[in-house]
Design brief:
By secondary structure, the protein is of the alpha+beta class. The protein is built from 9 helices and 15 strands. Strands 7, 8, 9, 10, 11, 12, 13, 14 and 15 form a 9-stranded antiparallel β-sheet that branches. Strands 1, 2, 3, 4, 5 and 6 form a 6-stranded antiparallel β-sheet that branches.
Length: 364
Amino acid sequence: MSPTIERTAIKKKKTDSMRIFGNKIVSLAMAAATVASLAGACAKENTESVNADNKIYLDAWMSTRHPGIQPTGLGVYIIDDQAGTGEAVTEDDYYFFVRYTKTDLDGTIGSTTEEKVAQRIGTYTKGDYYGPTVVLNSGLATQVGVLEMIKGMKVGGTRTAVVPGWLNVTIKGTEGYETGEDYLENETGSNAIYTITLADKTTDIHKWEVDSLERYTARVMDNVDSTFYGYYYQQLKAPSDTTTFPRDTTFYINYTGRLLNGQVFDTTIEDTAKVHGIYSSSKTYEPQMVKLSETYADITLGGSGSSDGSTTINGFAYCLSKMKAFEKGACAFYSYLGYGYSGNGNAIPAYAPLTFEIEVVDKP
């Protein structure tokens, strides 16, 4: 999970939906869209709901398993509700930080962000991120049934709900559905049971990240001030020469990248990779070559004397642009300078501030 993912690739991801089933989590919304498109022509000729059989089955299942539970206005069945003690969700909140587990009606776990649950069902991977994931308060990005069950929650609360398949979908921007009946008659998906814990919420995701960085730098980086909004640097070892590198300089570095919770997602140091469970026998652990450029955005990492490296995320590149001979330092920055709302694989979630420890070393 190197920082050498090209920014062009990151920008391309900006068209992707931020769904609750990103990364290690399976997307039912895509499957639902496929089924709906195949059923569309028949639905126009058939006055019966496309979910008639599913509704009969779900009604029977609910009357047997949870008799007396009434659906919410949109049609979600809340079967357990442990109230939180924090702030209540409002219409102005656009970002929810949730931990969750999803099962089918038979109790088979399909996906989870809970580490202990993943360990219990045998899907745990040490290098993956487990913890709160960001859910957008928009049916264009998040299943409408999930958003329905989050309504009325307070931070710290946990809620379990049965979400009918026709609500386990995202909207496509043109439907304009207003009622559960609209979804029942037009959308199809898989019934699911979600257990969701609301860890936090915010209307301003970047401010939330910077606040997290302020707490982190106060605790870990001697309370250094930000260089500019969302970026922090702490010198850990003074350089041997304070002369600024010429912009055509090539030098070598070792680095280790972490999330703010301390989880290592990438390193050039073999022992560090082994200790943190991300070692790969197919990777060569050695200092990486840095090629400076006139602008930090064009700095490349990796490659060799005969091949070019790759451009890297802006926060990492900016740090490299300021380092001097044999200097060692730590930088931390918010996701706008990192992987943004796309995250990166299973190790870096969406909207994740990152920190890197970097040292300029001899050529290997």
